[in-house]
Amino acid sequence: MENPTKNYSWAKPFPEIQKACTLFNRTELLQIARYVYIPLTGYLQQGPQCGLVALAILMGSANKETVDRIFQWAKKMEFSAYGEMFSAIWMAKLAEKFMPDARVEVHSGELDCDKIKEFLFSEKEILKILKSSVPIKAVQRRFKFVLDKDGNKVKVPRQQIIVTFDNLVLPQFVYVYRLRYEVDTWYSPVTQCYNCLNFGHTASQCKSKKRCKTCSKILNDEGLCTDCEIFCVHCKDNSHISTSKKCPKYNNQVKIKQAMANLNVSFKEAEKIVDNPSYASIVSKNKFTPLSSKTDFPELPPNYRNQSNPPNSKTTFVAHPHSSKSIPSSSVYENYKKRKVSDRSPSFEPVSREFDWSYTGAPWIESHQMNTKNTFEGLKDKIIEDLTCQINNSIRAR
């Protein structure tokens, strides 16, 4: 049966449908049979963002005449290029209406290993089509081993993909062809050697003697354990074996992995943070932490304070978009925003709103660089200086 999604001529008025058809032809999550589409869990959701993909799947599982009928019917229902009125469940019902002899199934399932390879996106392709509010550095696909029909281990991809972002703050969602996927923090799994039972490496890299998983004793030359009683080599406890996830040492390794991901630190630093809580305060690099418990501070000198702002005067502030400090809300601030970023002063002082800011010649940046004078005196001197220059220039022009 010819797949109508391979010919995009019918979808030219709707460019977003063409994207959905491209996704349909190349996706690793779908296996198409006659009148049957089988998406994996989480791919088709009951929401408008899945309408175009559902439409492409439906058109791929029907002949050309049926596709034309459905497409014309959708246009009469004021179908738009973005598919706001469609959802995956609704499209399944639509297929049953127009194809009564068809068998449309929506369920979860594992795909055949050979079929998966035909629909795989490469990591470079995923990196190209993946959209996010945070810059993406790398994409890595995860794999797992499963048994095929003959009982052999086969490496197949997982549904999760590891994305490395160029930021400490992760985005909430990423987007692939108008499909939204939630982002979760990925913690690297704990690595344990099944040869010496220690953490941090695997058996293929181990040069130590092999130990028994149950009693933790070194095996003899024949690889057998003579006296086998439950004993953990890590916590010296006889209630669990050395490879048990109930072991406190194993849980400590899990916390280290989480600290590495959350704080973006090395294994050694994460280990110090987990084992020594006081070290965590040092790593935070907060120089004011030692002062957090103090309440008695000396009075500042009188000339340090801004005398132009009496206690009863009101000041209106607007948050700076690039700084944690605040600046006055006024017409001068509107002119300030139009300046280049390189021309902006890095610090500002609060100014009373009782001052007349309608004077457009008041230099905002220069006035706040006068640390030796208060705000009003600095502005006053600057205004007088500007007016004097204008008068002198007019006299010279005559």
Major sheet: arrangement of strands:
3-6-7
Number of helices: 12
Report the mean per-residue pLDDT as an integer. Answer: 62
For the CA atoms, what is the radius of gyration? 34 Å
Write the topology of this structure.
Layout: H1 15-26, E1 30-33, E2 36-39, H2 51-60, H3 64-76, H4 88-98, H5 113-118, H6 123-129, E3 130-131, E4 136-147, E5 153-165, E6 173-176, E7 179-182, H7 248-263, H8 267-275, H9 277-283, E8 317-319, E9 326-328, H10 331-337, H11 364-367, H12 375-397
Antiparallel strand pairs: 1-2, 3-6, 4-5, 6-7, 8-9
What's a quick, concise take on this entry?
With 398 residues, the protein is an alpha+beta fold. It has helices spanning 15-26, 51-60, 64-76, 88-98, 113-118, 123-129, 248-263, 267-275, 277-283, 331-337, 364-367, 375-397; strands at residues 30-33, 36-39, 130-131, 136-147, 153-165, 173-176, 179-182, 317-319, 326-328. Helices cover 31% and strands 12% of the residues.
